[in-house]
Write a structure and sequence with these properties.
CATH class of the largest domain: Alpha Beta
Bound molecules: flavin mononucleotide
Order of helices and strands: HEHEHHEHEHHEHEHEHHHHEHEHHH
Helix content: 40-55%
Structural class: alpha/beta
Number of domains: 2
CATH topology of the largest domain: TIM Barrel
Oligomer: single chain
Radius of gyration: 22 Å
Organism: Kluyveromyces dobzhanskii CBS 2104
Protein name: WGS project CCBQ000000000 data, contig 00104
Keywords: Flavoprotein, FMN, Monooxygenase, Oxidoreductase
Domain Luciferase-like: 36-368
Strand order of the largest sheet: 1-2-3-4-5-6-7-9
Family: Belongs to the NtaA/SnaA/DszA monooxygenase family.
CATH superfamily of the largest domain: Luciferase-like domain
Strand content: 5-15%
Largest sheet: 8 strands, parallel, barrel
CATH architecture of the largest domain: Alpha-Beta Barrel
Distance between the termini: 44 Å
Number of helices: 17
């Protein structure tokens, strides 16, 4: 072996190995508007054809994806020219209609061994007992391969559907409830059953506000962002790490950070650009406006297409526009049209267009700059986008030492739970506030109950020195 190749090998070994997930919804439309109209797209089949999910699961496991990440919302994006106007998203099938993703997990789990499944469920929607039962069911039947993406909802339509027609409670109220909700879920999973009977799914969280970050820092094992730039991603990760370490005493090596990304790959840069243009040409501007209005909660139908949104005095618009501004500092005027132009293909996250080498380089830059642990890959057409990722991008990432060659070995030689796959652990780590609630397999009832008050006290007030 030459000196150079030894040095290359060493450099490769030192690189951080990342997590790769497929970011899906149980719908024909996800981030790219009107993607279902692409001739290669099969998502219109996803509602009624189990084979769609089965084949996709096999493809993802072949590529050694860590998990499927199912996003979900509980009402249509009906804010634009609304309220109650879901015509534009219905026409473009933008996250509408939307089946319950939980039911597709057993289909996908039955044909895979290592692929894990994160599923979104909102804390406004159902009692914690009911959700725990559902999550516990899919977790057991998939041999511990389930994670729960804890969300507090953002669409008023979801609230109208679920809370007796009431409007969505305030951010503060929703997060207060989420904290309490989570503590009930911990008690149900960890203290009501001895180890071996049931395990707590991996805890995932995404929330951009201060309270969202606090909830994540205290509870989550996987944290998800949708920043448009590596700089804002780095800032969000560093914010949450700071809170997790200093306020909650968490071990940061037991928290993984993920970023959303949409990639369009071609054998040449030109081919990738053509694919991007083709995806955009299918887009529907009204649906893009409706999605943006849903994400921000603000009806942008009241503004002119060419009016600068910088001048609009609305806090949600200002922070959303900031997201796009950072991504394209050269754009002089952030109008509705300028944002919609990006949303058409990219959706709410960043978009990387190019050859496998170019996209892998971007990914490597983002990892180095922000210390992000992995990506949720969304698509412009499914399963074609994932086929491209498996065929072109993943080998390039492996060549660079950014991806492991295979799944890790399971601890007991039989199955790999989601938590094992991520951390090599079966249980919550000891710096997690719910750690002590666990009723160990070899612990008798009296002994467990005698230490339960202290475990509950720690859950409630934190432990001054958990490490
Ligand atoms: C990257 C990312 C992904 C999200 N995915 C979902 C989702 O699938 N379903 C949902 O209801 N909310 C989702 N949310 C919304 C948050 O969980 C949260 O409820 C919402 O952002 C409002 O809280 P915030 O003000 O803290 O951001 C997501 C948020 C982010 C940042």
């Amino acid at each position: 072996m030459t000196e150079n190749s030894t040095a290359n090998k060493r450099q490769k070994l030192q690189k951080k190995q990342i997590i790769i997930n497929a970011f899906l919804m149980a719908s024909a439309g996800n981030q790219t508007i009107n993607s279902w109209r692409n001739e290669n797209d099969q998502t219109a089949d996803s509602f009624q054809n189990p084979q769609y999910w089965i084949e996709l699961a096999k493809l993802l496991e072949k590529g050694k994806f860590n998990s499927v990440f199912f996003a979900d919302v509980l009402g249509p994006y009906d804010v634009y020219n609304g309220p109650g106007n879901f015509g534009p998203v219905a026409k473009a099938a933008s996250q509408f209609p939307l089946s319950d993703p939980t039911y597709f997990i057993p289909l996908m789990a039955s044909v895979t061994k290592n692929l894990a499944f994160g599923v979104t469920a909102s804390t406004i929607a159902e009692p914690p007992y009911h959700l725990s039962r559902r999550l516990g069911t899919v977790d057991l039947i998939s041999n511990g391969r389930v994670g729960w993406n804890i969300v507090t909802s953002y669409l008023d339509s979801a609230s109208r559907n679920l809370l007796n027609g009431e409007s969505l409670p305030s951010n503060v109220e929703r997060y207060d409830r989420a904290e309490e909700y989570l503590d009930v879920v911990y008690k149900l999973f960890l203290s009501s059953w001895q180890d071996g009977a049931q395990h707590l799914p991996v805890l995932i969280q995404a929330g951009a506000s201060t309270r969202g970050k606090e909830l994540a820092a205290r509870n989550a094992e996987v944290i998800f962002f949708s920043s448009k730039t590596k700089e804002s991603l780095a800032a969000s990760i560093s914010d949450v790490k700071e809170i997790a370490k200093n306020k909650f005493g968490r071990d940061l090596s037991k928290i993984k950070f993920l970023s959303l990304v949409n990639v369009v790959l071609g054998e040449t840069a030109e081919e990738a650009q053509e694919k991007y243009e083709a995806a955009k040409a299918l887009g529907d501007v009204e649906a893009a406006k409706a999605m943006f209005s849903g994400w921000t909660g603000v009806d942008i139908g009241v503004y002119d297409d060419d009016q600068s949104l910088d001048d609009v005095n609305h806090v949600a618009i200002t922070s959303a526009v900031q997201k796009w501004k950072e991504a394209a500092p050269d754009v002089k005027k952030w109008t509705k049209n300028a944002i919609v132009d990006d949303v058409l293909v990219a959706g709410y996250g960043p978009l990387f267009v190019g050859t496998a080498e170019q996209v892998a380089q971007k990914i490597e830059d983002w990892v180095e700059y922000s210390d992000v642990d992995g990506f949720n890959f969304t698509y412009t057409q499914s399963p074609q986008s994932f086929e491209d990722i498996v065929e072109y991008l993943l080998p390039e990432l492996r060549k660079r030492g950014l991806l492991p060659e295979d799944y890790p070995e399971p601890l007991d030689g039989k199955i790999l739970t989601y938590r094992e796959q991520l951390f090599g652990d079966r249980f919550l780590d000891r710096t997690h506030p719910a750690h002590d609630l666990r009723w160990n397999a070899n612990e008798n009832k009296e002994s467990f109950e005698s230490r339960l008050p202290a475990a509950l006290e720690r859950l409630e007030n934190g432990s001054p020195k958990p490490l």
